[in-house]
Amino acid sequence: MFAVTGRGAQGGHDFGREIGEDEEYGLKPMNCPGHCLLYKSQKRSYKDLPIRYADFSPLHRNELSGALSGLTRLRRFHQDDGHIFCRQSQLKQEILRTLDFVQVVYRKLNLGNYKFRLGTRPEQSIGTVNDWETAEGHLTMALEESGRSYYINHGDGAFYGPKIDIVLTDADGKEHQTATIQLDFQLPKRFELEIDSSEPGTKETPVLIHRAVLGSLERFMALMMESYNGKWPFWMNPRQLIILTVGQDPDVRQRAGEIAQQLASPDARPDAQTLIARNFKVDCDNSDESIKKKILNARKKGYTFFAVVGHRNLEQPPDKQTLDISLATHPKEEHVQEAVKAFQHCRVSRTFPESHSSPVTAKATTLSLTVQQCQELMTDLESQYL
């Protein structure tokens, strides 16, 4: 797959090879060799390990045209590629940490229906049998200790080492591998990577862990689109809130636009903990359509919330003016449950003073909130994921 001298680095054309594979320069198919060179650029001590690299740069695979399929299989894609260089004594801890990382991310994304698959040595492989047995033992031990259920797919490992794949199923029942954890004893040897051992004057070879949590970002997005079916969680929704105006009064329309701008950027300063400035996706519909038609459109477009603004809402001074905010999605939709809970229960109720005229109850479907209270609702919802 890769020689340290570089495939085609001599500029020669080997007879029988496909055009595009033997030039001096080519499109990068993987990050592993580059990360090995990065590791090798400095002298490494056992005290430096583990060393972890991450890379989101585009990768390229010359897939057959018949194998291409939407976002799930592309010739150019992005991968949350990571490589961990560690000692054998650190393997179990690093694998367990990566498994925990996968579980945290998938839980946040509400992707609970996934399976762990252990791939063992294939017929065509490199390395000694002892290396393979050691690597498979580390992966099996980590899975057993983590308490996660898994199944073994014999002969499904990469040619350089065994792997743990996380498998998601799409709406058609087809399985897709997303996250992966692969052990590699061979690439560090081929690149002659070394560690200054704890014993003076001795060297040892590190072990390489290839890991991806999401895998191909394009494929993962396709699976999430199918899984959510357009009902995105609030923090991921490109349509979080829409302001709907009642009537055709220019003052109402102007004020609705101002409120939309306020809600879209409640605070330009970064949050003290996350260092991320709050920015929400807020639109405004001040068309001549009836309010019933506007609400119907908001539901069809997948907004999490809609807020109605009319003459009645503007009777108070600006700092006391309220919005009639409602859930645009059905409260029983699985992927908007966090919005429902925040809308109906403690997260919202603790935000507002007891004297508020419209207290939050478990049966509330519409709330009359000030602009600041609406900002707090959205901030509270987003904060659950940052």
Summarize the structure.
This protein has 386 residues and is an alpha+beta fold. It has helices at 32-40, 91-108, 129-146, 186-190, 217-228, 250-264, 291-301, 337-344, 346-349, 371-383; strands spanning 51-55, 58-60, 76-86, 114-119, 150-153, 163-169, 175-184, 195-196, 203-204, 207-216, 241-245, 267-270, 277-278, 282-285, 305-309, 322-327, 366-370.
Note the run of SSEs as H and E. HEEEHEHEEEHEEEHEHEEEHEEHHEH
Number of strands: 17
Biggest pleated sheet: 8 strands, mixed
* N-to-C span: 39 Å
**Percent of residues in beta strands:** 15-25%
The count of helical stretches stands at 10
Helix coverage percent of residues? 25-40%
Oligomer: single chain
Q: Ranges with pLDDT <50 over ≥5 residues?
A: 6-13, 345-364
Q: Overall mean pLDDT score? A: 80
What integer value in Å does the Rg equal?
27 Å
Using brief descriptors, characterize the structure shown:
single chain; 386 residues; alpha+beta; 5-stranded mixed β-sheet; 10 helices; 17 strands; elongated
Structure description:
The chain has 386 residues and is of the alpha+beta class. The chain is 29% helix and 24% strand. The protein contains ten helices and 17 strands. The strands form four sheets. Strands 1, 2, 3, 4, 5, 6, 7 and 10 form an eight-stranded mixed sheet that branches. Strands 14-11-15-16-17 form a five-stranded mixed sheet, sandwiched between helices. A two-stranded antiparallel sheet has the order 8-9. α2 packs across α3. The longest helix is centred in the first third of the chain and has 18 residues. The protein is elongated. About 7% of the residues have low confidence.
